[in-house]
NB-ARC domain-containing protein
Amino acid sequence: MKELVGIEEARDEFINKFLTQGNNVPMKQGKTVSIFGFGGLGKTTLANAVYEKIRAQFDCCAFVSVSQTPDLKRLFKGLLNDFGESINEEILDESRLIKVLREFLQDKRYIVVVDDIWDISVWKRIRCALPDNDVGYTIITTTRIADVAEQAGGAYKLKPLSSNNSRKLFFRRIFGNKNKDSNKEIEKCPDDELAEVSGRILKKCAGVPLAIITMASLLACKARNKLEWYEVYNSVGTGMENNMDVENM
């Protein structure tokens, strides 16, 4: 979800809350924190925005994804590759790869983003490869699972978009970035005929960026009339705005 509305504010809030000592001074000690929320909220987008903002402060940087069916040997090799460390292809044992990673990172200031963790046991195995050290490190995880977030350090609960940012994202995707008359970002429907149905659609999306982008993509291909937009609105499940349960996303 590139160019997600409001991501800069969330990024800066996250950095100031968890990764600085005040006055934008980076923390020197190690820090592990998890971005938590249900599917489609933009956890990966936020993690990447934080990563790109602060990675220059570190000696070693890596961004890896886990998913529900992780291949940890491949993940550990991916970490070493991102760090620019040559890998002996004969090292196939997970415990050996963990040992190599720990030794390599022990005296380096590093940042690692571990995206999309589903299982506590998987997180614990990954954490074994990322050592505490005296020069400082940052580990950021993303997850939909509350227990995993708690195990992976302090949790930052990602919230849905505000009504204002939801409108900006929705109308940007359909009508473009700027109001042609004022050159300002569109914050309300530029077509009065579509204002009511737009409001209903946004309520159904409930501030979830992925839902807003999906609906906007569908509508961008439709004629600009409210009958066609209401067809799209009625085709989507009526419970979206009330369904915030992780297991159902």
Q: What stands out?
A: The two ends are 17 Å apart (CA to CA). The longest strand covers residues 110-117. Residues 182 and 190 are 12 Å apart (CA to CA). Confidence is low (pLDDT under 50) at residues 241-249.
